[in-house]
Inverse folding.
């Protein structure tokens, strides 16, 4: 098991070593030696580069600054990992998704932070009739690793999973006020 020399990483690696039933050798990279981390270091560099790129693109589209402590940032970090798994080419000639499933990812996606219409999943189970709306507006923040459903933040309903989203016309896709109203995080999901 190889890790960098951050104290919390050392503690985590040691905890993994202690809980494993098999012998585990823990290697630590020298301090300030990012090159010695190899593939892990390159992947980390790729993820941080994509994080900056997606954040800057979102800021440009919204014409507002996204602070590091804004609740949308953890969704962005999660979405970056999802994108890398599905779209980053690997040495075997395809993405990690292709390696696992035998084909490239073909699902529908929207742009991160885009305002979309999503189908309300709990409409019928909540006793709401056919007269009630079937779609609501929310901000697209990625897709679920488990069932490939869309993850949408609705300011009123929290984080919603939906199998169906509809993209809005280009002139209505970006709304800084709606994004800045977000108060939920991925770990505070409301179903």
């Amino acid at each position: 098991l190889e890790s960098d020399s951050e104290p919390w990483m050392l503690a985590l690696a040691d905890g993994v070593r202690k809980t494993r039933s098999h012998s585990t050798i823990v290697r630590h990279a020298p301090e300030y030696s990012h090159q010695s981390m190899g593939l892990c270091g390159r992947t980390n560099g790729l993820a941080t580069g994509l994080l900056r790129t997606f954040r800057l693109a979102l800021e440009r589209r919204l014409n507002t600054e996204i602070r590091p402590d804004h609740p949308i940032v953890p969704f962005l970090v999660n979405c970056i990992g999802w994108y890398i798994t599905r779209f980053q080419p690997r040495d075997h000639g395809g993405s990690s998704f292709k390696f696992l499933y035998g084909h490239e990812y073909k699902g529908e996606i929207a742009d991160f932070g885009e305002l979309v219409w999503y189908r309300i999943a709990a409409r019928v189970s909540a006793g709401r009739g056919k007269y009630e709306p079937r779609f609501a507006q929310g901000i697209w923040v990625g897709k679920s690793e488990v069932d490939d459903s869309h993850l949408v933040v609705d300011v009123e309903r929290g984080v919603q999973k939906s199998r169906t989203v509809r993209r809005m016309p280009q002139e209505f896709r970006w709304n800084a006020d709606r994004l800045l109203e977000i108060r939920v995080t991925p770990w505070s999901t409301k179903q």
